[in-house]
Amino acid sequence: MIHITIAQEKDLETVANLAKVIWNHHYVPFIAQEQVDYMLAKIYNHQSLVEQLTEKKHVFYLIKKDDETLGFLSVSSENTTDYFLHKFYIDQQKSNTGIGTEVLNLLIKTINPKSLILTVNRQNYKSINFYFKNGFKIDRVEDFDIGDGYQMNDFVMLKQMS
User: I want to staple 74 with a disulfide (CB 3.0 to 4.6 A). Which of 58, 63, 141, 150 is the partner?
Assistant: First the structure.
């Protein structure tokens, strides 16, 4: 059975390890290995993860099936009704089985948002199609400078709850 549990600071090493495996498998086909390495070092080092958890008030969830951790996600909200989905990653070897939709529905049931917004790389067709399938629409196109000459070229996607 799939479930999500709130991650604590002690779980951040698990998050970082999962990110390394998932990102290297998923992102290298459409962004360079150098950018993947840069982003992993910048976003998933222990200090950055602690800052996201404490100062930026991201709530991290571990995605589990029985006792196996399959992935993670994180959200934040300024007003408890409109949420930003910062991270949503499932081990590629466990995807394409309906787990993603099940986890997204569990998250929505848990946080009960009026809206959910996220960014996704414009070359990440698999994820874009997943979000379309789950009721998200493209709200706008944005490019984000992430330092060292790297850009994130993203769609901002939005799901309004009915």
Answer: 58
